[in-house]
Amino acid sequence: MTSFVLLVAALADAGQPPSPPNRPSNRPVHRGAAAFRRQVEQQHPAVLVVGGLGLQAAAPPGFASLVGRAVVLALIFSPPMLLSWLAWLWPFFRNRVWYRMLTASLARAGTAFIKWGQWASCRPDVFPTAMCAALASLHSQAPRHGWRHTEREVREALGAPVDQLFEDFERRPIASGSIAQIHRAVWLNQTVAVKFSGTMVAQTRLDIEAEHLRRFGWNFAAWRDVRFPRVLAASEAVLVESYEAGELVSTYTTDLTLGVSSGSGGADPLSREEAHFVVSRGEDLYLKMLLLDNLMHADLHPGNILLRRARRYGRNSLALLDVGMACTAREEFEADMSDLFRRTCRGFGEVLRGVLALVRDRGVAIDANYMTLVTNVLCLEGMAGTLVPEYNVLDAARPLLDAHRALPRPLFRLAMPLVASLKRVKDRVCR
């Protein structure tokens, strides 16, 4: 857990990417977005993101702050720690009570611990299935702030009360994660999502996430089956974006981990074709971010991936959420990571876990970008192991990795659509 906490802290200092080139997007602008921006500009001109963004590094905490934080964490984790002996001896208590106590303690401990819980819930191959199922609630049911905080943030950020800006606004959040919670609202007869930063995360800037959304949206504009929410307005504490319908992939991974045959909340179970699409397309977009875009979603777990299931004569599609954490990499770093994966693409995911174990045991300081890449791969591998156990993430990536190593970057950029198409054909044949 300590290494993962350090990872989250390192990612918080990662620089944001430059603005995407000023080129027209293939996707239509969200209906009413310009009007919404004009309305907000008139009431609060400083709310919208214009130009580049910069963050000032926070001063390191003092000794007294560290001691105080240690005391608080000791109190938060004292219930599961004091009862750990009973959980060890009594399986019923461990599965029904202790794992829930641990989840509650992680939720109260703060953002870094929630992030660890989200990652751990994706690894039923590492942790007990009952523990993974309990931790899965941290994907969308983390602690929430009250309605008064929501009203105050809307008024300060958008310059008007909730009832004046929106035709309808659901007081109950539809989701709550490690750093923010999301409400569904209606404006100009269209559904939007309104995201608020949490009360305990003062350093969170949702305008940074808005910039990432714009960049990711541009990078994946040509992908008809991958979507990112479109930004309507953004401030440091509030983000208004298009509402993306669908079912969280974590719904299905949790049910499969528990051996439940139907999705939570009445969702139908995934077909083999749908499960294979989630895993293979998730790997495709991950490799595109790594090898081509130089912009990586740093929090790719099933709770941040929505599946929009195909209607009749339609197609499945994915929507990626919560892009507040993103990292960039130099070309030299990309080449090193590509070579690492090419060498370990023999079906041994344990290699990466062994690297993390050595780092933890030896106390080695490691690059945040490398940790992001490895953590994302492990989350994808865990998702694949749950949805499509026979699918090997690393082996399936070999065609793209070999092409990336053999071709100069300009040629690889031109050849990637063809290589990716060949990979998809291979995936279908092996399905």
TrEMBL record:
Record carries keyword Transmembrane helix: yes
Domain called Protein kinase: residue spans: 168-431
SUPFAM superfamilies: Protein kinase-like (PK-like)
Sample GO molecular function, one term: protein kinase activity
Signal peptide start-end: none
Keyword Membrane assigned: yes
Keyword tags: Membrane, Transmembrane, Transmembrane helix
Transmembrane segments: 70-93
Classification via Pfam families: ABC1
Domain of life: Eukaryota
PANTHER family: AARF DOMAIN CONTAINING KINASE 2 (PTHR45890:SF1), AARF DOMAIN CONTAINING KINASE 2 (PREDICTED) (PTHR45890)
Name of this chain's protein: Protein kinase domain-containing protein
Source organism: Emiliania huxleyi (strain CCMP1516)
